[in-house]
Amino acid sequence: MNKNILLTIITIFVLTVVSAQDAKYGFRLGVNISSLNSDLSGDFEDGRVGLAAGFLAEFFINNRWSVQPEIQYSAQGNQNDQLRTDYINVPILLKYHFTDVINAYAGPQAGLKIWEWENNENYKTFDFAAVVGVGFNITENFFADVRYAYGLVNVFEDDGLFGNFDANSGNIQIGVGYKL
After folding, report:
1. Average pLDDT, the chain
2. Which one, of 60, 64, 55, lies nearest residue 21 by Cα?
3. Residue of 131, 134, 123, 125 whose CA lies nearest to 151
4. Cα separation of 129 and 169, whole Å?
5. Which of 100, 109, 111 is nearest to 132 (CA)?
6. What share of the chain is helix, strand, coil (3-state, %, to 5)?
7. 3-state DSSP assignment of residue 166
8. Rounded to two decimals, what is the model's pTM?
């Protein structure tokens, strides 16, 4: 099922890129404050501070609405060494521009695990999350934003070290970027 979701997101991204007439491209760099949400206590509660960096394209539908697909590296998990992991995330964000300065956005995010601590293989390969956020255009090219991604699936493999537990990812990102 996760492969179907990822394929759908990639298809939406490609169709958006092909059909867009008014587009901006850029990059985004930020800090990620991530954790694992679970009923367990202890190590699962200790958040990890890491890097989030990637590229984006923004395609305007009209003066108020745009679609912003991204591809980004994201350091996730938490402080426990066995619970650290890194992803390549692909959010597809629908943005509403209240003014030329303030916007809000939401959308799905597919993630592909690219690294985990000492190859314990605790994490599933794919993650899927819902993203909400607010952005501020500082100038025509520079922007800042804050977003929250809430994981919608269990991140642990059934036969991994943490296979008996369910946990989903959650992270707050604070970022700045530049659009060409």
Report:
1. 85
2. 60
3. 131
4. 8
5. 109
6. 15, 60, 25
7. coil
8. 0.83
CA atoms within 13 A on the CB side of 16: 22
Compare 15 and 176 and report the one with higher pLDDT. 176
Q: DSSP letter at 101?
A: S
Rounded alpha-carbon distances, angstroms, from residue 16 to 37, 95, 100, 165: 33, 14, 22, 38
From residue 158, alpha-carbon distances to 18, 72, 115, 165 in Å are: 39, 27, 18, 8
pLDDT at 51: 95
Does 2 have pLDDT greater than 80? no
What is the Cα–Cα distance from 111 to 127, expressed in whole angstroms?
5
Smallest Cα–Cα separation from 146: which of 129, 134, 136, 132? 134
Tell me which of 22 and 13 has the higher pLDDT: 22
Q: What is the rounded CA–CA span in Å between residue 28 and residue 21? A: 22
Number of folded domains that form the chain: 1
CATH of the domain at 93: 2.40.160.20
Q: Is 180 exposed, middle or buried (0-12, 13-18, 19+ CB in 10 A)?
A: exposed
Please give the residue range of the domain that contains residue 158. 2-179
Q: Note the pLDDT of residue 144.
A: 98
Among 31-35, 38-42, 136-140, 142-146, the least confident range: 38-42
